[in-house]
């Protein structure tokens, strides 16, 4: 019926339908039949007729518009700003007590119980008195509760950052003229922090001596914490969080593993009860082990036995917790049990008095009065705070996004930067040092039923209870026990070596980055190791673009797809056409690589061909002059007239992200050289950025910009049609 009704509409409708069908066919295929003798540049090729968008407004207009938008103040904008800057105002009114409260309390209490011994242990790693680690964990939990957007991460003390803080603290203590021994070993209490003592720095007057070595150590730590927090807030304000992109997962993992060796080395002397100076700077790991072996005959047997017993308890208990974590509602707080048992044994056994064991000393209750950072120290620690700020932000944001994706909610990376920044700025006035998210405690927090940021507040309340009541009871706790706790918690980072075979199979480049960063962080220093890792990973990116994959392509039968001949079988090639794909940006670094690979893959270097033809032509002329009869040497003529195996090169530019001036000039040279040996070069699948660069670089002759192709298939059809109908060669200059 439909066919009959169409036929009754007359020839006019049929003609319209035929024209429409032909137009649709031509929009897909760039070659149609045309009478011989017609111009191949018009009529049979449909170019990329793309109408560009209107140009954007001038920079001045955009700045003025953005300024007006930013500076305008309405009640709705103020409300949105306050709610976004203080996320607690958004989620707390919607808090579901029956659904969330029990899980938040359980996870908060468990993390708090685990955090107390770690806060005391990591304080020694940062070169501080134990009380300051408790302060840091307490304030970090409260501030992140107010500003943070992640429901699951645990913000507090992180071992690698503590190590980096401790290295700067030791350096500044020595620079100020104190003895070289770490502040945590001075035996002075925090309550004497503002009293004059007999341990005076040699380069300061007595009027400037307002605190002892312990106080000066936390002053350095707090000042560095303040400036690191300022950096993080500034990065959030200017939205430059992209710097964390340069810290890839493999780089961060290698850095943490390398720093773990340094942490283990710094704690080894406590295991043996040795009183040796703490070293920092380049090669500190090797120097420390040399000092340990030189003084190993001074090992305190009591501390050594205590360390062995703690290892025998903690390591199996940690393994059992990991193995049965799916069956346990909460991990067994074995660290707290060990600390309580060791403290009781040390107190009643009088290990300090009898055997000379080193103990934590008096940990006061309550809080010290707030105190601003030492502004005179800012020039000395400003540079050291940069890697701390970047690492703290990168770890916090990566963990936030990981757990948000797992549980189906979103976090704001910019707000996370503000949150971790304020977790450093505000506590720096209350004798705290740098904090960030920590993976181990975050995993415990998530696995124990955490639902919102309320669990962080519960953790802070647990630490507050310790600060107000329980802290003095840890007076007799041996430092070797804290060292064992620190080393056992390095298990996750050190176990990364077991993942190397799998990592090698997935990506050899990432594995090499991991190894280089790990080795540099361990053997040189943590800061230099991080810098080496960043530089090496960037060099790897450059090398990969400098020597990219550049295969020849073949046609997949019964489709319009072209794929690599070296990767797939049963691909077909079109006679006289070479399809080449360059899988990298074309810029000044790899321009020579582009030309050399193209010449190698096609088997023809046009420069050599031109030179050979010129040489053969000159030889032919000389032979003509010698041969008075006009006979020509057949070998020379055969060489000159020897045809190439192809007449067209199609360059697939789908993987070329951008061109610079050197890249445009290289394409011009390639097209010109091949045109001179009667080979045309066509470009296909150029992205808008590449097309714009080509136009601005005057790549095309006037009226030739329509010779860009949407696909490789179109370019091949065009080349076949041009060769079949006119035999001419069209090449862009």
Task: Describe the secondary structure blueprint for this structure.
Elements: H1 2-7, H2 11-28, H3 59-71, H4 75-85, H5 88-91, H6 97-125, H7 130-147, E1 155-156, H8 159-176, H9 213-237, H10 249-272, H11 284-294, H12 301-323, H13 334-349, H14 351-355, H15 378-407, H16 413-425, E2 436-437, H17 439-447, H18 454-470, H19 479-488, H20 491-494, H21 500-506, H22 508-523, H23 526-546, E3 552-555, E4 562-564, E5 577-581, H24 591-602, H25 606-626, H26 634-641, E6 648-652, H27 661-675, E7 680-684, H28 688-696, H29 712-725
Parallel strand pairs: 5-6, 6-7
Antiparallel strand pairs: 1-2, 3-4, 3-5
TL;DR?
Keywords: Cell membrane, Glycoprotein, Membrane, Phosphoprotein, Transmembrane, Transmembrane helix, Transport. Helix content is 58%, strand content 4%.
